[in-house]
Amino acid sequence: MDTTITIWICVAAAMAAIIIYRMLHRVIHLNHGAHHHRLIELGSEREELWIPGDMSDTNIDSYDDAEDF
Amino acid sequence: MTTLRTSDSCTEASTATAGLFMADYAACLLGCGATCSRLEKNVQRMSHRWGMNTEMTIMPRHIHIAVTDAEGCTSTYISSIGKGVVSYEKITLLSKLSWKVADRGIGVADAREIFDHIKSVANANRWWVLVAVSCANASFCRLFGGDLAAMAVVFVATMAGYYLKQLMLGSGCDTRLIFAVCAFVSSVLAAAGFLFHIGSTPDVAIATSVLYLVPGIAFLNAFNDMIDGHYVCFFSRLMDAIVLTCCLSAGLCLGMAVMKVGMF
Amino acid sequence: MIEKFIEDALFAAIAAIGFSAISNPPRNAYIYCALIAAIGHSTRFFLMQPSVGAMSIVPASTIAALVVGVLAVLLSPKAKIPAEAFLFPSLLPMIPGIYAYKTFGGLVMCLIHRSEGDFMHYFYLFADNGLTCLFIILGMVAGAVIPIFLLKHISFRATR
Lengths: 69, 264, 160
Hints:
Helix content of chain B: 55-70%
Mean pLDDT of chain B: 88
Number of strands of chain B: 4
Largest interface: B-C, 57 and 57 residues
Number of domains of chain A: 1
Shape of chain A: rod-shaped
Structural class of chain A: mainly alpha
Number of helices of chain B: 11
Mean pLDDT of chain A: 66
Number of strands of chain A: 0
Order of helices and strands of chain B: EHHEEEHHHHHHHHH
Low-confidence stretches of chain B: none
Distance between the termini of chain B: 44 Å
Oligomer: heterotrimer
Strand content of chain A: under 5%
Shape of chain B: elongated
């Protein structure tokens, strides 16, 4: 009985770890994306002359949705 | 999907573009999980409208399609069937496309444009599918006589297993391995009923926890092809379904063995 | 009895929606899947009741699939969806999944138990579950496909 409970806990913990890792990965990825976005804004000032900023936000959103599949 | 043209006898013929299109169309339709009768009907419908005669050999992984026009000029194409996800939405749209060709007489170029659009249609949202499958399997548990506690256990076990399946499919793992691993995880998690004495029907929970993996559409398509006389397709689809069922059973047996639960 | 019948229909409908989601049906097909599966599964439940039909699972599944097939073919032109797009998903709750993996389980047990008595017992379980599974699916597909071929002028023109 002890071994079965140990195995059950191991499997459940592994699943929980995978889910938490994926969630963290997602959050970090999103943050990384935002960070990247800021860098681009800083780096290319001429974009401000041509395009008013919102476009890149929507781009990032749609990229993230597409990755879901 | 790759298409190989095997005859150069009619380079400028009208069969060239139409044949290539129909080969791609047929491969896509079969990859989406259509039956052979549907495939034959749809392709014949389009080719008759375009004034051509089409003959097909449907093999487990390839479609061999020969298109002959009014002048008797024939082109032959072999198209590989992609290992796609079953999508009845794409089958519906592809069937509508065949009727558009037959009724409105749209040309090959326009049909190709619509076809490319259909190929890019997204599958159902993965989170919706995850929740729906979990609810479905919990309902299944109820249909087999499980109580509310067993339903809750099955819901969680299915959700974990299906989430894992989606992750592993996304990372390109082998389907058979995915089925075995997911069945193992789901059955072990569903054994919570036995281990922690949750509810009065823990056996139903463990028995129904892996049913979301049973390749039902593959079985149904296989026997449909058999009734239709497409025995080669029948055997290949049936073998696919049996192999997947064996993999899920292996995962389940292992899960039950480590949880010390008997199947019979 | 009547509430069991309704409960069976309700849970079969939820199961059909969930399992059909895996095969990406068109959005308007979900409601038809749920409706047809509820009618089909509860028909089977009804036929298998000892006090009503007392049928075994194979003929009951075949008749239920016939009902499902007729409904699917009749509703397909209304939904503008090929009949099989909600016919096969609606049959999914009736797929004998438990028989399928018990077949494999019986086979594994045959290999583990070498004494003749045990082997024969597990071989019996293997053959029993395997044959039941095979004939349920065969009966279901035959029942479901008969309406498609009998009503060809409707079933292959649904998306027109």
